[in-house]
Design a protein that fits this description.
The complex is a heterotrimer of chains A (about 200), B (about 160) and C (about 130).
Chain A: H1 5-30, E1 34-45, H2 46-54, E2 59-69, E3 73-80, H3 81-91, H4 104-129, E4 133-135, E5 139-144, H5 145-159, E6 162-172, E7 180-185, H6 187-196
Antiparallel strand pairs in A: 1-6, 2-3, 2-4, 2-5, 3-7, 6-7
Helix pairs in contact in A: 1-4, 2-5, 3-4
Chain B: H1 3-6, E1 7-9, E2 15-19, E3 23-28, E4 32-38, E5 43-49, H2 65-79, E6 88-93, H3 106-121, E7 124-130, E8 136-141, E9 147-151, E10 157-158
Parallel strand pairs in B: 1-3, 6-7
Antiparallel strand pairs in B: 2-5, 3-8, 4-5, 4-6, 8-9, 9-10
Helix pairs in contact in B: 2-3
Chain C: E1 3-7, H1 11-23, E2 27-32, H2 35-45, E3 49-52, H3 61-71, E4 77-81, H4 86-94, E5 99-102, H5 107-129
Parallel strand pairs in C: 1-2, 1-3, 3-4, 4-5
Helix pairs in contact in C: 2-3
């Protein structure tokens, strides 16, 4: 997997702008300050990255979204099961502590938050960079963090030992929620997109 | 050596070989975790098999059952001094994970390939827990050969 | 009381829309989780209007819209989606959507979209009598 530093830099700017957009949409959905910021975009080693994630053996709820169109990408949003209760309360405009256990409403709230994050990321890429991609219906799954992460990157791992990975820092004000949000863009299609908008470094 | 120092995590498609008192751990979805143990020398390894067969040229051989397992056995015997005659295997994982990749039940294919290769190599499978739809959390103690396995949402079982 | 069919694959969104609309004097005719169910429910319940999500499993909202309009040219369908893209908007309008609301939405915006439909409908009726 080869990409120049200049191109990686442009991808970083694209990612930051789209994550900002998703962050604003999330704040509006939860009616509280949600701040998602880019922490790292890198060409990561498949084995090392999955090893790091396999250290996290917490039980998580996750939502994964595939994007369809000229540009391929996957999004994963996951958080510990107990954290999802807080997000559900915020989303349903209930007092925190109202949701007591993970049920169909928790799953549905996480599913919808995944949809909102993915949609607004694609909205930004489409309007700002002429990308063509649209999210597919989100899939919710409960499992260990490392297992969920592996499922996200498995397809990439079949064709390469490296993967293009976008990591974020995710904060929701007034809570100590620890959430993961990852994006795995399909590199060739994004390189073509950079070409088409005139970034040929 | 405290508990965390004893623990070694294995990534997807990786192989780690160590000896007592170390404990190898990993998480498995559709992947198969193969542990090989030499109880006499207390040497053990964990291979995290991602796919049944190697297709590309440049990819890491430990990702695949057909290249990774023979390499694993070779490493155990020639580089760590494990005795081939005393080696036994335990296998875990191979779940049918949710369909985001459009990949048809890789877990099952992984398991079939692993079982066939171990049979061909003449290595006995002393214990196994495979299939299902949820992830596996396994800890392999190279001292005893015990594998502590917890399938997501279930209780812990030692194999 | 006007009856609304609420279509979204997320149960929580159906619940939120239900709460907002009933608070504002509408009745919920029923709910559906994708475009195919939407058409079935539309035929069965004959609602006065439909709120329609776009990204849904099996049959998406644009297809659901097309099929409902094919069945009933007068159907009033408001698209409610997090997709805020020109292609999606244009395609919805081209196939007869009455309005397009972007998620996350303010309650007022969603209620206004539904109220406008019936305001327009009345104007049309008045117009045709003249």
């Amino acid at each position: 997997m080869n990409i120049t530093q200049d191109r990686l830099k442009i991808l970083e700017i694209m990612s930051s702008l789209s994550i900002d957009r998703a962050s604003r949409a999330l704040s509006k959905s939860l009616r509280t300050g949600a701040r998602i910021s880019l922490s790292k975009i890198s060409i990561a080693d498949f084995g090392e990255t999955t090893e790091k994630m396999n250290e996290d053996q917490r039980e998580m709820i996750s939502v994964m979204v595939n994007f369809k169109g000229n540009e391929g990408c996957k999004l994963l949003f996951m958080l510990p099961l107990e954290g999802s209760l807080i997000l559900t309360d915020l989303f349903l405009r209930q007092r925190i502590g109202t949701s007591k256990e993970c049920d169909v409403f928790t799953e549905s709230a996480i599913q919808e938050l995944g949809n909102i994050l993915a949609s607004h990321i694609s909205n930004a890429l489409v309007s700002d960079f002429n990308a063509q991609l649209i999210p597919q219906p989100p899939q919710v799954h409960n499992d260990y963090a490392g297992v969920i992460f592996t499922n996200l990157v498995l397809e990439q791992g079949m064709i390469d030992d490296k993967l293009l990975l976008i990591e974020t820092i995710f904060e929701i004000s007034g809570t100590e929620l620890e959430c993961y949000l990852f994006l795995v863009p399909e590199m060739n299609s994004f390189v073509k997109l950079l070409d088409s908008i005139g970034v040929k470094t | 050596m405290d508990n965390t120092e004893r623990m070694i995590t294995v990534g997807v498609g990786d192989l780690k070989i160590t000896q007592a008192p170390h404990v190898l751990k990993t998480l498995l979805g559709s992947c198969i975790g193969v542990v090989l143990h030499d109880p006499i020398n207390k040497i053990g390894g964990l291979l995290h098999v991602m796919l049944p067969r190697k297709s590309g040229n440049d990819l890491k051989i430990t990702k695949y059952a057909n290249t990774g397992l023979p390499y694993f056995i070779y490493q155990m015997v020639t580089h760590t001094g494990a005795s081939r005659g005393s080696l036994y295997a335990k296998i875990f994982g191979g779940a049918k994970m949710f369909e985001t990749n459009g990949l048809f039940n890789i877990g099952e294919s992984n398991e079939l390939e692993v079982r066939q290769i171990l049979k061909k190599e003449g290595i006995r499978i002393a214990a196994s827990r495979t299939g299902g739809v949820k992830g596996y959390n396994i800890l392999f103690d190279t001292e005893t050969g015990d594998v502590t396995c917890r399938v997501f949402g279930e209780s812990v079982i030692v194999y | 009381m006007k009856k609304i069919l609420v279509v979204d694959d997320a149960k929580v969104i159906r619940m939120i829309i239900r709460q907002i609309l009933t608070r504002n004097g509408f009745e919920i005719a029923g709910e559906a989780g994708n475009g195919r169910e939407a058409l079935e429910k539309y035929k069965e319940l004959r609602p006065d209007a439909v709120t329609m999500d776009i990204v849904m499993p099996e049959v998406d909202g644009i297809q659901g819209l097309k099929e409902i309009i094919a069945f009933d040219k007068q159907a009033k369908v408001v698209m409610i989606s997090a997709i805020d893209q020109r292609d999606s908007l244009v395609e919805s309008l081209r196939h007869g959507a009455a309005d397009y609301v972007v998620k996350p939405f303010e309650d007022d915006r969603m209620v206004a979209a539904i109220k406008n439909i019936f305001a327009k409908k009345q104007e049309d009726t008045v117009g045709s009598r003249q």
